[in-house]
Design goal:
Layout (H helix, E strand, L loop, with lengths): L10 H4 L3 H22 L1 H10 L20 H6 L13 E6 L9 E5 H17 L7 E4 L7 H13 L2 E3 L6 H12 L2 E4 L1 H13 L11 E5 L5 H11 L2 E8 L4 E7 L6 E3 L4 E6 L13 E7 L10 E7 L1 E2 L8 E2 L4 E2 L4 E3 L2 E3 L1 H8 L5 E12 L2 E10 L3 H4 L4 H16 L4 E5 L6 E2 L2 E2 L2 E3 L5
Parallel strand pairs: 3-4, 3-5, 5-6, 6-7, 18-23, 19-20
Antiparallel strand pairs: 1-2, 7-8, 8-9, 9-14, 10-11, 11-12, 12-15, 13-14, 16-17, 18-19, 21-22
Bound molecules: 5'-O-[hydroxy(phenylacetyl)phosphoryl]adenosine (DLL).
């Protein structure tokens, strides 16, 4: 296996020994814990309550002693209460997209932005990118971290960046063709949509030069990867991140396309049992937790992501790999006693060409019985491309869902773009039972 590193400057750390990496992590962790204890009142309080002092944290092996941080802690300290630096040193502010409640605000110093750009540049290189590429960024620019995150990473790499942002599909395709975009960065569902739209605008994948995709910000299945690769003629790579920890680039997949390497010199990952908080061994599935060990403005300690994944050893790069995030712990639904994950629904929808992978699960309770409705967006070309009627398509989805989920669901086809999106991400679950 040839590792894509080019002459990239992070080669040393990405292939360092585990011992060397742990040494760096331990030193950075101890420093960070001391800094938050001294500068962030809510952290000091939490550590005092847990009976922990900065002197107790000497190495990564002491990490488990520290209390967790939750999204609620950021909300309680809204907007800047968990910042560990002086506001005059903050040079950028972003906010999370707020798909699950009030937005959370995050800040970066100049050094934080450099570190973040470096993490994203590593992702681009691992996917086969170089300074000779033309990087087309179709994530949203603004408070969302996707647009500027990929932008700064590609700039750091020395590539030519096209800040296309979201929307106006015809224009995006025209830019692919005229400007010669070689790397596309956007949500996987938008990549699917762009692939489907080529024909509509009289183009084929041979009219464009795209060769790599850097897709993330929402869960996507291996089936979706395959379809995007075929539609656009590219290698589709996964990039993961969350605003609270940094943004895109917390982890990324490489040429193996088999798990995402965590940038462990900046973020220490753990997998825990979401119910008990117990740290689980490599290979076990559980909730991802990250500790930021090099950030200045917002170094979150043991941050509970709610994302479900597992960790495995690496493939040549030193950094540990996390499995593709299949969903969030708060996305898993228990309907009539059966566990239902949105990714199961997606895998069914991918087998039906008349619908897009934009869907929403609406769960309710009627006469003490849970009900599930699956709303699915039709593709724009449904009526010209298919001879099936809407009822026949709904019935087909119903039947397939029944066999995959093991429960019966009402299926409703809705117009393209009818499902609410935030920063390109569809809101996939509405659980009305919580409100009753
Ligand atoms: O979505 C950052 C990002 C932008 C990542 C662009 C990748 C590309 P937030 O808006 O704070 O930040 O949302 C973070 O999105 O906790 C996951 O639930 C989900 N998520 C992000 N990347 C992936 C991925 C950005 N590759 C939340 N696979 C996270 C699955 C992902 N879920």
């Amino acid at each position: 296996m040839v590792i894509n590193m080019g002459n990239y400057f992070s080669k040393d750390i990405e292939t360092a020994s585990r011992e060397k990496l742990e040494e760096i992590q331990s030193e950075r962790l101890a420093k960070t814990v001391r800094r938050v204890y001294e500068n962030v009142a809510p952290y000091r309080k939490k550590m005092d309550e847990a009976g922990i002092t900065p002197d107790d944290i000497k190495s990564v092996r002491d990490l488990h002693k520290l209390p967790f941080t939750y999204k609620q802690d950021l909300r309680d300290s809204y907007p800047y209460g968990l910042f560990a630096c002086d506001m005059k040193d903050v040079v950028r502010i972003h906010a999370s997209s707020g798909t699950t409640g009030k937005q959370t605000v995050v800040g970066y110093t100049k050094n934080d932005l450099d570190m973040w750009a470096e993490c994203v540049a590593r992702a681009l290189v691992a996917a086969g990118g170089s300074k000779d590429d033309t990087v087309h960024v179709s994530y949203g620019y603004g408070l969302f971290t996707g647009g500027l995150g990929l932008h700064d990473g590609a700039t750091k790499l020395g590539a030519a960046v096209i800040p296309a942002s979201t929307g106006n599909t015809r224009r995006q395709l025209q830019i692919f063709k005229d400007f010669g975009s070689t790397i596309l960065c956007c949500t996987p569902s938008y990549a699917m949509y762009l692939g489907d739209s080529l024909a509509e605008y009289g183009m084929t994948k041979d009219d464009i030069k795209l060769r790599i995709g850097i897709f993330g910000a929402e869960p996507w299945t291996p089936g979706m990867r395959q379809q995007i690769e075929e539609k656009l003629g590219i290698a589709a790579h996964d990039i993961y991140g969350l605003s609270e920890v940094a943004g895109p680039g917390v982890s990324f997949d490489c040429e193996c396309q088999n798990g995402l390497h965590v940038n462990e010199d900046h973020f220490i990952p753990e997998i825990i049992d979401p119910d008990t908080g117990e740290v689980l061994p490599y290979g076990s599935e559980g909730e991802l937790v990250f500790t930021c060990i090099s950030k200045e403005a917002l170094p979150l300690i043991r941050y509970r992501t709610r994302d479900i994944s597992s960790l495995t050893c690496s493939c040549g790069r030193t950094f540990v790999r996390m499995s593709k995030v299949t969903g969030r712990s708060d996305d898993m639904l228990i309907i009539r006693g059966v566990n239902v994950f949105p990714s199961q629904v997606e895998s069914v929808l991918l087998t039906i060409k008349e619908v897009a992978p934009y869907y929403q699960l609406v769960v309710d309770r009627k006469n003490n019985l849970d009900t599930l409705e699956v709303k699915v967006e039709m593709t724009e070309g449904i009526f010209s491309d298919s001879v099936k009627g809407i009822e026949a398509i709904e019935a087909e989805i119903h039947k397939k869902l029944d066999s995959v989920l093991g429960i019966s669901a009402k299926v409703t086809l809705v117009e393209p773009f009818a499902i609410e999106r935030s920063e390109g991400k569809a809101k996939r679950v509405i659980d009305k039972r919580e409100l009753k």
